[in-house]
Design goal:
Blueprint (H helix, E strand, L loop, with lengths): L2 H21 L2 H14 L5 E6 L4 H16 L3 E6 L11 H19 L12 H11 L5 H16 L13 H13 L7 E4 L2 E4 L4 H8 L21 E6 L4 H16 L3 E6 L12 H18 L12 H12 L8 H11 L8 H7 L7 H8 L4 H14 L7 E4 L2 E4 L4 H13 L1
Helix pairs in contact: 3-6, 5-6, 9-12, 11-14, 11-15
């Protein structure tokens, strides 16, 4: 490691715990909510960034119509089409994944989804986007977009009554997205906070006010029973979502009687996929929100990029055959993402390992062994073979889910296996 890289890592590890602790603190977030509420003039305004060739947008459109009936809010539709090139580091894979994932979400939450939907061409998508971009009233927009996008995705000619092309409105919406320092569609912005994807609308629903029922009505989870087989968990020691999923994955393997195989990979930036500051900020804030909902300790983060990641991988490799393989990664990830501990320092690491089953003598031996590098490279190939690029991912047989909020996909697969 270069001396400059070592110095930069030292500074980052010193600064990041204090910065992240402040950024994710409930005190700061609640103060921000109150500040925006005091400035509000009229109904709360939500900005919905919608892309016609993003299936996630179609699902959110259905649920946002329900949100309007639950709360006194105004929704401003903002059609966008061109996103930053860095938003999706693997765009072709993202297109296929979003379509398959959206179909699963629709079934899980009982939303409308037409079989036979196919990704439209960029030209047809843009033609429709510029015709929808000028619609400012949400109920009219929702009605037109639902019909026109449904036809677009089924390869049919648009039959909905649409307005004139509004390329200026489309460009203004994309400029607005950039000014708000965000990068993706299928997202709602409300008074300083982003809600990206269908699942996060439950957080928005709670922020807007108490309701007797849940915004999203999911199927009840299956009752676990031993089925055997292997659960393979792909994760990164720099991914906060990987940390949030660890306990649930370990419990799932135990409850369903599965062997747990850990397959950690290097962080995306180390694999040549840049993650911009805006995306990192959203991920940290969103992970903090998910952690609060799941009552998981989180928020004081010591950025592990570089030496700390490598140390964690070396230790995990040494304990990969342990009967409880997730115990050590959980201890290490908790130190990184919840307690802001710098594991590049031997004294700190030794103290952290007191909560694990690994002795300091074992750790010293593991840290001198570079065999983990081939193991991690093989894990990356296995992740690529699954047509995925990010983590966390969980695989059972031929079924793969991506994200700590998609573990129900694997639970459904386990339940199906139990009935066969």
């Amino acid at each position: 490691m270069k001396a400059s890289d070592h110095a930069a890592g030292w500074i980052r590890r010193r600064v990041s715990p204090r910065l992240s602790s402040w950024l994710t603190s409930e005190k700061r977030i609640d103060a921000s909510y109150r500040r925006y509420a005091r400035r509000r003039d009229g109904l709360p305004e939500l900005e919905f960034f919608f892309r016609v060739d993003d299936p996630r947008s179609l699902l959110m459109l259905q649920v946002l119509e329900t949100l309007v009936t639950r709360h006194q809010v105004k929704i401003i539709p903002r059609v966008v089409q061109t996103l930053p090139s860095w938003a999706h580091p693997a765009p072709e894979l993202a297109v296929n994944w979003n379509l398959a994932d959206s179909a699963q979400l629709a079934r899980h939450y009982g939303l409308h989804w037409s079989e036979g939907m196919r990704q439209p061409t960029a030209e047809r998508a843009r033609d429709l986007a510029v015709r929808l971009a000028g619609e400012e009233e949400f109920s009219a927009f929702a009605a037109k977009a639902a019909i026109a996008c449904g036809q677009l995705w089924l390869g049919q000619e648009a039959g909905a009554e649409l307005g004139e092309t509004q390329p200026g409105a489309l460009a203004a919406n994309e400029a607005r997205l950039e000014r708000l320092k965000f990068y993706d569609s299928a997202a709602v912005y409300f008074e300083g906070e982003w809600y990206a994807g269908l699942d996060r609308l439950t957080h928005l629903d709670r922020r807007l006010g108490k309701c007797e029922s849940s915004l999203l009505q999911a199927r009840p989870p299956p009752v676990p029973r031993p089925v055997g087989g292997e659960l393979e968990y792909f994760f990164s020691f720099r991914s906060p979502y990987s940390y949030l999923a660890m306990e649930r994955v370990a419990n799932m393997a135990r409850d369903w009687g599965c062997n747990l195989r850990l397959s950690p990979v290097l962080p995306m930036v180390t694999r040549g996929m840049a993650v911009r500051a805006a995306k990192r900020r959203y991920i940290v804030l969103d992970a903090a929100r998910e952690a609060r909902a799941g009552e998981i300790e989180f928020g004081r983060i010591c950025d592990p990029l570089g030496e700390v990641v490598e140390r964690c991988l070396a230790l995990t490799y040494a304990m990969r055959e342990d009967p409880r393989p997730m115990d050590l990664p959980q201890v290490l990830a908790r130190a990184v993402f919840a307690r802001g501990q710098d594991l590049s320092r031997d004294r700190v690491l030794r103290r952290v390992l007191e909560d694990a089953t690994m002795s300091w003598e074992q750790a010293v031996s593991a840290l001198s062994d570079a065999s983990w590098r081939d193991w991690v490279a093989d894990n990356r190939e296995r992740l690529n073979d699954a047509q995925l690029w990010g983590v966390p991912c969980l695989r059972y047989a031929k079924i793969v889910c991506w994200g700590q909020d998609r573990l129900w996909v694997i639970e459904d697969a386990l339940a199906a296996a139990a009935t066969n």
